[in-house]
Structure formats: structure tokens, C-alpha cells
Amino acid sequence: MTHRFTLRIYYEDTDLAGIVYYANYLKFIERARSDWVRGIGVDQNVMKDEDGLVFVVRRVEADYLGSARLDDELLIETTTEQVTPARLIMRQVVSRDGVPLFEALVTVVVVNTSGQPSRLPKVIRQLLH
């Protein structure tokens, strides 16, 4: 299952050279993951309020392959690579007109409100298979 999320680049996303500031790609893929989670029916506010659980990024492997610029429309594709009881690994590719600009392998885990590791809720694991 691949989730697709589009995003337009605004002036605030760029640096002095007029290209997207490197750290903003992490924000972009976060937005795409949040949209994907919402799209599969997971309400993160309910998960926190009722179950005391939240998603956190454990690890990111990132490759910067090209540069986006002001007014570009980007496509962020999120694909589930692996789901275990303890973690979710996703590949996220940011592209413009079919050309990859940024790629990341993101490991997400769940912690309770005290910050202690927890298992992914069974209902979420089922949604991802």
C-alpha cells in the first residue's frame, strides 16, 4: 500500500540560495505520514487520550538526491516496508515530476505518555497488513 501526498513549496521553505532548506524535507515527510495515519483511520489524539500511546520517530536514514525550489509541487509517497509488534518501518520518497529528490527510511515506534516503549496496538498492525 502506497500513500500519496502532494505539497507545494513556499518562500518560507527555502534558504538563501532559493532551494528547499534540507531540514524541511523531514517536516514534509512528517506531514505525509500524519496524513497517511489519518487516512487509514487512526486518530492520534484518541490514541493518546484513550490509550496513552503516541508515535515517535526512532530512526531516519535520509538521502538527498536533488533540490526543490519555490513553487514546485512535490509528491511524497509513503510505503510500508515492515511492521512488527514493536515498530513500523516506512520508505518515503519525495519527488518532482517523477524525479526523486529525497528518500528516507523511517522507523517509528510507540511510547506511552511516560516515554516508555510500548507495542504497536494490534488494531494498527492489522490495518497495515
| Coarse shape | elongated
Which regions have little confidence, pLDDT < 50, spanning 5+ residues?
none
Number of helices: 3
SS-derived structural category = alpha+beta
Mean of residue pLDDT values: 94
CATH architecture: Roll
Q: What is the helical fraction, as a range of percent?
A: 10-25%
CATH-defined topology: Thiol Ester Dehydrase, Chain A
Distance from first to last alpha carbon: 9 Å
Rg from alpha-carbon coordinates = 16 Å
Elements, N to C (H/E): EHHEEEEEH
The CATH superfamily turns out to be Hotdog Thioesterase
The percentage of residues in β strands lies in: 35-45%
Q: What's the structural domain tally?
A: 1
**Major β-sheet profile:** 6 strands, antiparallel
Name of the CATH first level: Alpha Beta
Count all strands and give the number: 6
Could you explain how this protein is built, in words?
The protein has helices spanning 24-39, 44-51, 122-127, and strands spanning 2-8, 53-64, 73-83, 87-96, 99-112, 117-118. It starts with a strand and ends with a helix. It is built from three helices and six strands; from the N terminus they run βααβββββα. The protein is elongated, with a radius of gyration of 16 Å. The protein has one domain (2-127): Thiol Ester Dehydrase, Chain A (Roll), CATH 3.10.129. Strands 1, 2, 3, 4, 5 and 6 form a six-stranded antiparallel beta sheet that branches.
